[in-house]
From TrEMBL:
A GO cellular component entry from the record: Smc5-Smc6 complex
Organism: Prunus yedoensis var. nudiflora
Coiled-coil regions listed: 179-238, 313-411
Name of the protein described by the UniProt record: Rad50/SbcC-type AAA domain-containing protein
Organism phylogeny: Eukaryota, Viridiplantae, Streptophyta, Embryophyta, Tracheophyta
Entry keyword set: ATP-binding, Chromosome, Coiled coil, DNA damage, DNA recombination, DNA repair, Nucleotide-binding, Nucleus
Primary subcellular site in the record, as a coarse category: nucleus
Pfam families membership: AAA_23
């Protein structure tokens, strides 16, 4: 069946489709058409893409892919061999019915871009500047211009027209009428309202159930208020009795006042004596204050001396530590010298023994060996003399070290006594 002509009628004023531009959409690689304000006819052979323009308008205005009855997903509208598709629609936005003219101006641009993974819808103003990109913004726009792309009276596709013209079933025609006249939308709205009313009734029942204990409590409070009114009458009677009792208290108080005045007179007579005692106590307090100031100055002086003594103590402790360290060094040095002297004395004894042995050997040797032995004896005597001089020097050093150690011990003892 051929379809050489496609046409659609636009209303006058705001919301008129001014221009449609398609890129890689269905069979169109690049298409741009200008539309008039009223009736527009698009002619062409079958498969030339006339219905694709109507489908593009549905997609631009937010229709789902299944709603167009041309594809199951939006990516199916991308032309074969391409990676994306673009639908660009320009609407007039002039007159009293204009949609946010202060933001969009005289023209609103709807641009929907479809790719293999996602789709985006952008609303632009007349200069092409991006204004919004949310679905709610597009829904607000189409609701403002009353553009319902799923309503067959707004956009009737070929499939819808064939279904309506060739259907002999009155029920199907009534469904078409029911949807075209927005009765279907009204019914859906009524069903939604009915569901909301059911939920509201449940909430009201719950609230009434929660109010019943409060009503019981309120009734109990009202009963208590009645009892309190009876208590108020009793309170009035009690006030009258208190007034009568007050006069009895007045007589009693007058009597007590007379007794108190007599006591006050006696106390006034004792005032001079008490004043004298107070003056005496004040004088003692003044002396005590002077004594306190004196003691305070003495304490301050003692605190100053204490701080000096503490400082001296710290210095003496430091000196003691240094002296102890020096004592340890001297004791170590003394030990080393003492050991050295012991070694030298042992060495001298061994040399003397050698001299003695040599002398004895000298007496036994022959005359020929005597001269050689004398030379050896002289060498030994010289070595003994040098060792004895070294030993004397070491003894002097030992005495000096002993005196130094004794002096250090006496200094440490004095420091300990001072501390």
């Amino acid at each position: 069946m051929e379809d050489p002509i496609s046409g659609f009628r636009q209303r006058s004023g705001s919301g008129i489709v001014k221009r449609v531009r398609l890129e890689n959409f269905m069979c169109h690689s690049s298409l741009q058409i200008e539309l008039g304000d009223w009736v527009n006819f698009i002619t062409g052979q079958n498969g030339s893409g006339k219905s694709a323009i109507l489908t593009a308008l549905c997609v631009a205005f937010g229709c789902r892919a299944k709603g167009t009855q041309r594809a199951s997903t939006l990516k199916d509208f991308i032309k074969t061999g391409c990676s994306y598709a673009v639908v660009h629609v320009e609407l007039k936005n002039q007159g009293e019915d204009a949609f946010k003219p202060e933001i969009y101006g005289d023209v609103i641009v709807i641009e929907r871009r479809i790719s293999g993974t996602a789709t985006t819808t952008v609303l632009k103003d007349q200069q092409g500047k991006k204004v919004a990109s949310r679905k709610e913004d597009l829904r607000e726009l189409v609701e403002h211009f009353n553009i319902d792309v799923e309503n067959p009276c707004v956009i009737m596709s070929q499939d819808k027209s064939r279904e309506f013209l060739h259907s002999g079933n009155d029920k199907d025609k009534f469904k078409f009428f029911f949807k075209a006249t927005l009765l279907q939308q009204v019914e859906d709205l009524l069903q939604n309202i009915e569901k909301q009313l059911e939920k509201a009734n449940v909430v009201v029942a719950e609230l009434e159930g929660s109010i019943r204990p409060i009503e019981r409590e309120l009734n109990e409070l009202q009963e208590k208020i009645k009892n309190m009114e009876h208590v108020e009458e009793i309170s009035q009677q009690a006030k009258q009795l208190k007034k009568k009792l007050a006069w009895a208290w007045v007589y009693d108080v007058d009597k007590q006042l007379e007794e108190q005045n007599a006591r006050i007179g006696k106390l006034k007579d004792r005032v001079p004596l008490c004043q004298a005692k107070i003056d005496k106590q004040i004088g003692q307090v003044a002396k005590l204050r002077e004594c306190f100031a004196l003691k305070k100055s003495e304490i301050a002086h003692m605190m100053k001396k204490t701080s000096e003594i503490r400082r001296m103590k710290d210095e003496l402790q430091q000196t003691l530590a240094l002296a102890t360290k020096e004592k340890l060094k001297l004791e170590e040095e003394y030990g080393r010298k003492f050991n050295q002297i012991q070694k030298m004395m042992n060495y001298v004894r061994s040399l003397q023994q050698q001299v003695q042995d040599t002398q004895e050997q000298h007496a036994k040797n022959t005359q020929a060996e005597e001269s050689e032995m004398e030379e050896k004896l002289k060498e030994l005597q010289n070595e003994v003399a040098s060792i004895e001089s070294m030993l004397a020097r070491l003894k002097e050093e030992e005495n000096a070290l002993s005196e130094c150690v004794q002096q250090t011990n006496s200094e440490i003892k004095e420091i300990n006594e001072m501390v």
